[in-house]
Amino acid sequence: MTRLLILCTHNSARSQMAEGLARRAAQALDVDLEVHSAGTEATRVKEQAMTVLGELGIDLSQHTSKTLFDLPDPWNFEYVVTVCDRAAEACPAYPAKTTIRHYPFVDPSGGSLERWRTVRDQLQVQFQAFVQALKEGRPVPEGYEVSPAVPADQPHPEPHRAG
């Protein structure tokens, strides 16, 4: 089984949504993938994350915000993906066997529900491509598979792109 860790700052929005979406993609593509998410700090899972994933039939109601140290075997992951710049900066050193990727998605917190849906949809495309690469035995994406456009209700700078 391949293990994937998705890291964010608070494990309350982007990483939680990415966990649910990656798990669903792995099930749909029949990829043996164990998916976890964590934050550099633990807070709570945001209601909007539960709402927009619920719209896709993914239930986050039993998810809790956690740190790396709350996970089973936290230093044994084949892949670690950071989904925000602060988590990338705080990401601990992993063994050389671990592939680390940084996909910095815009924080939907404080934005409209449409903004949350946009970020959810971007996460879905990115983690679908990630899981598809695993299924096909290709390297996982080094950067974005889609342009990270966000609704104009909250302007943002263009995120850094890996690769």
Automatic annotation (TrEMBL):
<keyword id="KW-0560">Oxidoreductase</keyword>
<protein>
    <submittedName>
        <fullName>Arsenate reductase ArsC</fullName>
        <ecNumber>1.20.4.4</ecNumber>
    </submittedName>
</protein>
<dbReference type="InterPro" id="IPR023485">
    <property type="entry name" value="Ptyr_pPase"/>
</dbReference>
<feature type="domain" description="Phosphotyrosine protein phosphatase I">
    <location>
        <begin position="2"/>
        <end position="133"/>
    </location>
</feature>
<dbReference type="GO" id="GO:0030612">
    <property type="term" value="F:arsenate reductase (thioredoxin) activity"/>
</dbReference>
<dbReference type="InterPro" id="IPR036196">
    <property type="entry name" value="Ptyr_pPase_sf"/>
</dbReference>
<dbReference type="Pfam" id="PF01451">
    <property type="entry name" value="LMWPc"/>
</dbReference>
<keyword id="KW-0059">Arsenical resistance</keyword>
<feature type="region of interest" description="Disordered">
    <location>
        <begin position="142"/>
        <end position="163"/>
    </location>
</feature>
